[in-house]
Amino acid sequence: KGVPEDMARIVFAEGNFWGRTLAAISSSTDPSSYSGFGPKMPGFDIVEYGNLKALEKVLEDPNVVAYMVEPIQGEAGVVVPEPGYLKGVEEMCRAKNVLFIADEVQTGLCRTGRMLAVDHENVKPDILVLGKALSGGMYPVSAVLCNDEVMLQIAPGEHGSTYGGNPVAARVAMAALEVLRQENLAENSARLGDLMLKEFQSMMDEFPMVKAVRGKGLFCAMVIEEREGKDAMDVCMALKENGLLAKPTHGDIIRFAPPLVLTESELYQSMDIIRKTLREF
After folding, report:
1. For residue 187, what pLDDT is reported?
2. What is the pLDDT of residues 38-93, one digit of tens each?
3. Which of 17, 207, 219, 256 does the annotation list as catalytic?
C-alpha cells in the first residue's frame, strides 16, 4: 500500500476481545483487560462496532492497513450486528486497499449455524483467525487462514512460533473438522439455536429479570437486570447448582454456548433448568 515505515495503523471494533497479549489489550476498550499493563502499543484505532459510517470515516486515513473485527462479538456479550454489516465491511476494505481480518476464534466452526460466521453474509475476509473449537476442545491449536498474496509477504524464517506446526495438534484439528462435517454440526447448531432463542424470548415474558436476548446458532446471550443485589453472576452460580454451566460477562449478561453435539431433548432439559433457576430470583 506504500505506507511509510512505522506509520501503519490497524483499526479494531469497540468492545473487542482477542486475547491478553500486549497487542490485544492495547486494542481493548475494557479497563479490566488493559488496566495495569501499560504502556499500550501504538498504531491502533477504535471504531464503534456495527457502525459502517464510522468505519468509512476512519478508513479515509491512507495509513490504515487493516480492520480486525469479530463477526459476532463474544466477550462483549454475543453482540450480533445488523444484517449487511459484514458485507459493508468487506466492500469498504476492498475500496480502500485495507485488509479485512475476521476474528472467528469464538464464532467459527459451526458455532453460529454455519461453518464460519462470515458465511451468513457470504463474505471472504483477507485473513481469518480460528482457535478453540479447531481441536474440539481437546488440544491447544489455532490457525490463521489467508491467501498467498497475504501469506507470502512473510518469507521463510521471518516469523515463527515455538509450538507452531505441532504434528499432534494438526492431526487433532483435522479430526475435529471431520467430525464437524460428518455429523452435520452446523445444521444442528442452526436448528437448535433457533429453538433456544425462541425459548429465551418466551422467558422475557415469564421473568421480568430477563431484559433482552440475542444470538445466532448455539451462541446466545441473556441480559439480566439486577434485582435485590443479584446479578448475572449470581444467576450463573445458581445455574451451576442446578446442573447447568454458563458464563457471565460485563456484570449483566449471561452467555450460553452449549456443545455442538447437543440434542433436542438435552436442549429442553437445559431450558427447564434455566426456568427453575430464574424462579429462584
Report:
1. 98
2. 999 999 999 999 999 999 999 999 999 999 999 999 999 999 999 999 999 999 99
3. 17
Cα separation, 89 vs 125, in Å, equals 9
Catalytic residue among 96, 100, 126, 132: 132
- Cβ neighbours, 10 Å, residue 211: 13
Residue 129 has a pLDDT of 98
pLDDT of 160 = 84
User: What's the rounded Cα separation, in Å, for the pair 140 and 252?
Assistant: 30
Low-confidence stretches of the chain (pLDDT beneath 50): none
Short-list 15, 25, 85, CA closest to 50: 85
Please, are residues 104 and 48 in contact by the beta-carbon 8 Å criterion?
A: no
Note whether 94 and 127 are within 8 A (CB): no
- The span from the CA of 221 to the CA of 79, in Å, is 8
pLDDT at position 213 is 98
pTM score > 0.85 for this model? yes
CA-to-CA separations, 31 to 10, 26, 67, 115, in angstroms, rounded:
20, 10, 22, 33
**Residues contacting 61, CB < 8 A, separation 6+:** 9, 45
87 is catalytic: no
Active site residue 132: yes
According to the model, what pLDDT value does residue 161 have? 85
Between CA 13 and CA 21, with CA 17 as vertex, the angle to 5 degrees is 115
Q: Write down the catalytic residue from 12, 96, 100, 103.
A: 103
Contacts of 32 (CB under 8 A, 6+ apart): none
φ/ψ bin of 2: left (φ > 0), alpha (ψ from -120 to 50), beta (otherwise): left
Asked about 103 being catalytic, the answer comes back as yes
